Amino acid sequence: MSSETTHRPLVAILSGAGISTDSGIPDYRGPQGLWRRDPEAEKLVTYDIYMTDPEIRRRSWQMRRDSEALRARPNGAHEAVVRLERSGVPVRVITQNVDGLHQIAGMPARKVLELHGTARAVECTHCQARSGMAEALERVAAGEADPACRECGGILKSATVMFGENLDPEVLTEAVAVAQAADIFIAVGTSLQVQPAASLAGMAAEHGARLIIVNAEPTPYDELADEVVREPIGTALPALLDQIGKGARATG
Predict the structure, then answer these.
(1) What EC numbers are recorded for this enzyme (predicted)?
(2) Is 177 annotated as a binding residue?
């Protein structure tokens, strides 16, 4: 990694729900966020409740079936990240999102760390077998209100990190390493209120990164930032990343 960054800065991008709102996926904690509009919705993604309440599981599967998230397409902000990576600048994405839109936009999967898992797969809570979300939703549409694991009959859940579950320690360890190595760390569309993801911004700043926060609402890390951008993400992030790309090419 050090040879890559001799002339070209390592750019780490921590993305939250705000980067995907232009794709039609609502955020969680903003003024119109899901948790504010429907506090009961948190129960559907709380592990202990999900595992012990069959009615919650049935409602969860209906929510997934009706969700627009899996039909969403990447927007200009996702595409700008890919454009920067393809220009030769070392880029790593750490995302709190589960929508997979960074990869669909063209970001190599090995350069995307999904802190909270993915909504595009399901996993068995008993044998850990994984399969596609689309297949599970086809079973729901066919009448299975709470589809069980085909391998062992265990309870299936989205391959996302629910409330009450720990993050994957390997993914988190890699995210910490990226944050500490970054020359530029951009937190975009995230309230920086959910730990441990939020602490990555502070960690990057402590290790000398230029910290840039692009978010509509204030965050707890604004005072640490070298730059805070309140403009709409769909236009602000592409402009910022294009500027970084030009600067990297000029020095490279």
Answers:
(1) 2.3.1.286
(2) no
- Domain boundary at 104, 138, 160, which? 160
- Provide the CATH number for the domain around residue 234: 3.40.50.1220
Annotated ligand binding at 127? The verdict is yes
pLDDT tens for the chain, 252 residues long, are 444 434 579 999 999 999 999 999 876 555 445 545 566 778 888 999 999 999 999 999 998 888 877 889 999 999 999 999 999 999 999 999 999 999 999 999 999 999 999 999 999 999 999 999 999 999 999 999 999 999 999 999 999 999 999 999 999 999 999 999 999 999 999 999 988 999 999 999 999 999 999 999 999 999 999 999 999 999 999 999 999 998 776 665
* Predicted TM-score of the model (pTM): 0.89
Ligand-binding site membership of 115 (annotated): no
160, 188, 215: which is the final residue of a domain?
A: 160
Domain extent at residue 4 = 1-25+73-116+167-252
Q: Domain tally for the chain? A: 2
Task: Write out the catalytic residue numbers.
Answer: 116
Q: Are residues 233 and 128 part of one domain? A: no
88 among annotated binding-site residues: no
Find tokens 């910290």 and name the residue: 211
